[in-house]
Specification:
15 helices
């Protein structure tokens, strides 16, 4: 873990705070947490990983950060886009004062807060209602065994908060880190059903990751993710709230609707789970992500939506930028494919190699093939050997993972690629991986031009 007291790490943390605000509209408040989840990723880091703990943000820091926030986007609290460990926002001693300051500066901007819920009570929720619009993401995780898997001595508060959120007129969503190997499948089903009965707009079910250093109890069978997806699919036909499993298992780029928030514009228009969005205002939907954002940014979009063998034109009555109520799994953004193509053209690269996570490689390959350009792209999946375990994400790749994979690929090829593209998410704003190594080493070692995207 990062040590805030050595070298110049406090300055690094300060820079990350402002970067998160300016680039992602994320406002880091504190790394302090009032629970100790057995699945917490911060407890499984191998030695050498740069992760920083943030002391409670100060009033003078908040005043500066607010100027960087985009009022057109939700202000996100309780999430992390950097190497700062996110904590429980409501442990901050000045949480109400800070939220009031944000509301005064940004009177119409949604404040989005992710919380474990144990510090939410009627008084807190009444205050949140008074500074609306506020959206709460409640991480309940277990209805019956929350104390055991989260070390939460106030578990009953979080359970009660789910019922209170709707009563106080707050928009809210539920989430569950699925641990059926510890809590049992029935507890998982009951937790999802409870969140649905309390009025959650959507419910996200996360497949936990574990590293090579994880305790034995956290290592679930390899069949668990698929069993989880099947279980959630069965529940999705019974719940009002759309259910999604993250990360999703993407096998195609069909813009299939995972669910629709009840009473939303898309729901009123008749869109339902399982529909395929073929076009938006006559433009073909390239992927789920592309369809979602085309609908969101457009006023009164006209969709050609297929239900089975039948396709109908549907108008979703909404303002430009307003949520439609569509819930779709994340596959790939068309703009990424366009950027890859443009970079290759700018570099005059006839043969481009893309290094991607094991999770994203197949989707990226499908998208490049579908885009049907004349350039040669080869997507190489990079195993997360440094973290090991079940980790397969690009954000946790380190330079050794990338160097070893690219080296093995080049040994078996007669021609050297003209360009190598690396995933931006593997590096911090300064271009360094989780161990502090810069991506430019790739150019030095292999003498191949490198771009990070």
């Amino acid at each position: 873990m990062g040590d805030l007291l050595k070298n110049n790490l406090p300055n690094n943390v300060e820079r990350l705070i402002y970067w998160a605000a300016g680039h992602s509209n994320i406002l880091p408040l504190t790394s302090q947490c009032n629970v100790k989840c057995v699945f917490c990723s911060n407890l499984q880091n191998p030695p050498g990983v740069e992760a920083f703990n943030l002391k409670p943000l100060k009033t003078e820091q908040l005043s500066n950060i607010i100027t960087l926030l985009d009022p057109r986007k939700p202000v996100v609290i309780g999430e992390s886009a950097t190497r700062i460990n996110e904590g429980e926002p409501f442990t901050h001693p000045k949480i109400k004062e800070f939220l009031s300051t944000i509301r005064q500066a940004l009177p119409h901007t949604t404040i989005q807060i992710t919380t474990n819920g144990s510090l939410l009570d009627a008084g807190q929720l009444e205050f949140l209602h008074s500074i609306s619009p506020v959206t709460i993401y409640l991480s309940l995780n277990s209805l019956n065994l929350r104390r055991q898997i989260m070390g939460d001595l106030r578990s009953e508060n979080a359970v009660a908060a789910a019922a209170l959120l709707g009563q106080y007129g707050l928009n809210w969503h539920g989430s569950v880190v699925a641990m059926p190997h510890l809590t049992g499948w029935e507890d998982l089903k009951e937790t999802i059903s409870y969140l649905d009965s309390c009025g959650a707009q959507t419910i996200r079910i996360f497949i936990p990751g574990f590293t090579r250093l994880a305790q034995a109890q956290l290592r679930y069978p390899g069949t668990m993710p698929e069993q989880l997806r099947q279980t959630v699919a069965e529940l999705a036909s019974k719940t009002k709230a759309p259910l999604t499993v993250e990360p999703p298992l993407i096998t195609d780029l069909q813009p299939e609707v995972a669910g629709v928030i009840p009473n939303s514009p898309a729901f009123t228009a008749g869109i339902r789970r399982g529909n395929i969005i073929q076009t938006v205002n006559g433009k073909e939907a390239f992927s789920r992500v592309h369809a979602f954002y085309m609908v969101k940014k457009t006023a009164n979009p006209i969709l050609l939506a297929r239900n089975g063998a039948k396709a109908n034109k549907v108008v979703i009555n909404k303002a430009a930028g307003e949520s439609s109520g569509l819930v779709m799994e994340y596959d790939i953004d068309l703009s990424l494919i366009e950027d890859i193509t443009q970079i290759s053209l700018r570099r005059s690269a006839a043969n481009t190699v893309l290094l991607a996570s094991e999770m994203a490689a197949k989707v990226l390959t499908m998208a490049l093939n579908k885009y049907n350009n004349d350039q040669l792209f080869t997507v190489i999946p990079v195993p997360n050997l440094f973290f090991g375990g079940s980790i397969k994400t690009a954000g946790l790749l380190v330079m050794d993972d990338i160097i070893n994979t690219l080296g093995d690929y080049l040994k078996n090829k007669y021609s050297t690629p003209d360009l190598v593209i690396l995933p931006q998410i593997a590096f911090d704003p300064g271009g360094r991986d989780l161990l502090g190594r810069h991506w430019s080493e790739i150019e030095s070692i292999f003498s191949i031009p490198v771009e990070v995207l």
